[in-house]
Specification:
Layout: E1 14-18, H1 23-34, E2 38-43, H2 48-55, E3 59-62, E4 74-77, H3 86-93, E5 98-100, H4 101-109, E6 114-119, H5 124-137, E7 143-150, E8 155-158, E9 164-168, E10 183-186, H6 200-211, E11 219-223, H7 224-229, E12 240-244, E13 251-258, E14 264-270, E15 273-279, H8 285-300, H9 309-314, E16 323-328, E17 331-336, H10 341-353, E18 359-363, H11 368-373, H12 375-382, E19 387-390, H13 406-414, E20 420-422, H14 426-436, E21 442-446, H15 453-458
Helix pairs in contact: 5-8, 10-12, 12-13
Amino acid sequence: MRKEKNMLNKSKMHIHFIGIGGISMSGLAEIMLTQGHKVTGSDMTKSDITNHLESLGIEVGLHSKDNINKDIDLVVVTAAIHEDNEELIYAKELGLEIMSRSKFLGHLMEAYKYPICISGTHGKTTTTSMLADILLHSKKNPTITVGGILDSIGGNIRIGGADYFLTEACEYCNSFLDFKPIVGVILNIEEDHMDFFKDLDQIKDSFFQFANLIPRDGLLVIEDTALENTPQIKQISAPIETFGLDEHANWFASNIIFDENARPSFDVYHNNEFLFNLKIGLTGMHNILNTLSIIATCNYLNIDLSSITEELINFSGARRRFEICGKIHDITLIDDYAHHPSEIRATLNTLKKYPHNEIYIVFQPHTYSRTKAFLSEFAEALGTYGHIILTEIYAARESNPGDVRVEDIVDLMKEKDVDAIYLESFDEITNHLLSIAEPGDLIVTMGAGNVNQIIDMILGKI
């Protein structure tokens, strides 16, 4: 790609988004439209997201060279678009200005007083969504881009004032290194996206570079074990506040109690000083950590901590994050975005605390590279609880390399006498579940692809 210039101060540009149907790209397109620019875009298929954009007046087509012309001022490209994309090739031939999604987002942040970037291997969408609700409740009028659908803003984007910009910051392809955070949050650091990173050390270095972007008058909020395991982060010039589950962290939780629906209450401490007891509406131990990161961030932003407890109690999560989707014949249907072994373990630990008889889990692996990298880890994580059904890998941005199969995970689980089967089609899975599930059971779909459609099928929506 050509070296880009910061063009975002220009007025009335024509901006074309290649891959506009992505959750982040669609939000950026909507922001640009609101600022008065002409916006067009393309994607592989139409979707609810592209339909929404078209309802706003944005012209969206399928990928085609015909979408590109010399009147376009700027082409924005998501990381999922490959170099052989015909629109990208033709845009280069015409000499058009081309910018990656991450650089575009980084330039956009420069217009705001407080860009807040939520990073980490897991928990970004939930944490961003929770902080979004608090900023709204605190009358901060934030601009928000989130990687999921948040009911309080009616989607994945909210356009606000010029002070607060809240976004997720993903490490994939080092995208978050193009951002301009004043406050950066690192929820955790683990192996993931091994189609891009060669090992965990490279991932740690990427998070170090992200932390190093924060200026001296900003703040890094980081989980305490992530900091201890990535000691180079201690070298940054910005102040650091840690959070965790013991007194070694600046912000920590103690006296944790779960209610009958797996929702925790706990005491919040800052630098060993008791602040208050808090009950949250989210489930699971991992969401205690997510909440602590938000409290630390709010403290830096001078938000009265006593004023945020109601939002934390009432916040029930973003869609597809342990989302209770409904009931049929007293069988509870839950959808969760977990697509990494650690996320699966966290979700299963939460499910154990949730009232149930039997648990039936439908897992859809996400991308061939992740499935190959974590084959045994998936088998181990899934094998800890419940009856497991695996379905075909969701390819996302990848092509099938032919060297990894879902059946390999099933075979590893069966070696340890885990109740696991592979069913290829959603119809098969739906019929199987309806034939075996009984009142009081849980059916849980799990994955970052389209596995949640099974719940719609069970409920008779499709």
